[in-house]
């Protein structure tokens, strides 16, 4: 067996299952889960219809490169969304089966597993980054989030001697679980470091279309363009239809950016067997070409967060995030209670599931930046989220 598998930690939801072992929730309450970040809004009918209308594609082997129609639709969306100059769909865009496997696969393409190789990750973080680093033969280096910067990673805290060993830097903007969005100045500093040390930046942007301000979150390709970085050197952006269009089961996303890296990435993926079904490609192209359903979806999240956040703020230290569909709440403000104890007792007494923040982070530089926080995924319809919030308020007032 591959000995690197032994370095992988249980997924956060496995830890949660173990935390709840032996706990019987109060049957007076119906179960409500705010734990898993799985969109629950209905899939738009026109996407379902496009999928059904293209089932004949199941009779054909798919191309790893994807269809011209899909890559053209993705290019058009990127240009409209971020104000980019025309992209080359043949060399700068590649469809992928959701961002998870694509993020993992990039490390296998990029990393040269020499002794001391590092993959830089935000902390807290999406656990795929860590697993991808280990299984590529590198070691993750965690950069803790900074509450003073709305939980964006504090890259200025990284010692100078670390940067030369970094081969790949994962970032998530808007962040999971914090909702933090990098600024143009943040990007400028990261690009300068990438230029100096040669590492690749993997920009995970799957929450980019759920936001609460008038201005949409800044993307990595957009930042590069604004800073005059022609060709997007050493930058790969990842996005997905899962959250944008409420189709997590389609497993449809894309990567875009540096054509030289994508050329090698396509070679790896050709051997890896990661090709999107032609039926899914056809439905995906239709989804990327429509914006009205995205606007309507975002309006539902705005209305939901505007109702739920003030309720929870009565008892928890929590604020509206920059973007994304999570609330990142501090639970030990009024009483001394850990995030795991909070989650376990809330589940037992009110049948509401939240995810302990410490499960989403690692002990690094003397601290676990997720400790005493919980992540709440407001993915269900507003009535269910409000019911969960009311139960949390009642629970917290009893502590």
TrEMBL record:
Source species, domain of life: Bacteria
Any Pfam family the entry gives: Aminotran_1_2
UniProt EC number: 2.6.1.17
Cofactor names: pyridoxal 5'-phosphate
SUPFAM superfamilies: PLP-dependent transferases
Assigned keywords, A-Z: Aminotransferase, Transferase
Protein name: Succinyldiaminopimelate transaminase
Top-level enzyme category: transferase
InterPro entries: Aminotransferase_I/II_large, DapC_beta/gammaproteobac, LL-DAP_aminotransferase, PyrdxlP-dep_Trfase, PyrdxlP-dep_Trfase_major, PyrdxlP-dep_Trfase_small
Alphabetical GO biological process terms: lysine biosynthetic process via diaminopimelate
A GO term, aspect molecular function: pyridoxal phosphate binding
Domain (Aminotransferase class I/classII large) ranges: 32-392
PANTHER family: AMINO ACID AMINOTRANSFERASE (PTHR42832), L-GLUTAMINE--4-(METHYLSULFANYL)-2-OXOBUTANOATE AMINOTRANSFERASE (PTHR42832:SF3)
Taxonomic path: Bacteria, Pseudomonadati, Pseudomonadota, Betaproteobacteria, Burkholderiales
């Amino acid at each position: 067996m591959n000995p690197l598998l032994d370095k992988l930690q249980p997924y956060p939801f496995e830890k949660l299952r173990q935390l709840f072992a032996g706990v019987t929730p109060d049957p007076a309450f119906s179960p409500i889960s705010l734990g898993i970040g799985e969109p629950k809004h209905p899939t738009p009918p026109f996407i379902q219809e496009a999928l059904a209308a293209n089932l004949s594609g199941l009779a054909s082997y798919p191309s790893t490169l994807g269809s011209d129609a899909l890559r053209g639709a993705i290019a058009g969306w990127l240009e409209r969304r971020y104000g980019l100059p025309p992209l080359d769909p043949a060399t700068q865009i590649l469809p992928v089966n959701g961002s998870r496997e694509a993020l993992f696969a990039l490390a296998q393409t990029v990393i040269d597993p020499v002794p001391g190789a590092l993959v830089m990750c935000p902390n807290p973080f999406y656990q795929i980054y860590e697993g991808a680093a280990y299984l590529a033969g590198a070691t993750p280096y965690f950069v803790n989030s900074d509450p003073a910067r709305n939980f964006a990673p504090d890259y200025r805290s990284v010692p100078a001697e670390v940067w030369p060993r970094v081969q790949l830097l994962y970032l998530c903007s808007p962040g999971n679980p914090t909702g933090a969005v990098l600024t143009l100045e943040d990007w400028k500093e990261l690009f300068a470091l990438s230029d100096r040390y040669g590492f690749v930046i993997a920009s995970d942007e799957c929450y980019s279309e759920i936001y609460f301000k008038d201005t949409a979150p800044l993307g990595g390709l957009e930042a590069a363009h604004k800073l005059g970085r022609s060709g997007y050197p050493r930058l790969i952006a990842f996005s997905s239809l899962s959250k944008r269009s409420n189709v997590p089961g389609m497993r449809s996303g894309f990567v875009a950016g540096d054509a030289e890296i994508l050329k090698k990435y396509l070679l790896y993926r050709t051997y890896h067997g990661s090709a999107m079904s032609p039926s899914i490609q056809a439905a995906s192209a239709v989804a990327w070409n429509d914006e009205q359903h995205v606007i309507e979806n975002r309006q539902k999240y705005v209305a939901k967060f505007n109702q739920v956040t003030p309720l929870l703020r009565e008892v928890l230290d929590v604020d509206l995030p920059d973007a994304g569909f999570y609330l990142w709440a501090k639970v030990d403000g009024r009483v001394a209670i850990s995030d795991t104890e909070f989650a376990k007792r809330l589940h037992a007494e009110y049948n509401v599931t939240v995810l302990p923040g410490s499960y989403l982070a690692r002990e690094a530089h003397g601290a676990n930046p997720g400790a005493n926080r919980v992540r709440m995924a407001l993915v269900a319809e507003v009535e269910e989220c409000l019911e969960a919030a009311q139960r949390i308020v009642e629970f917290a007032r009893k502590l």
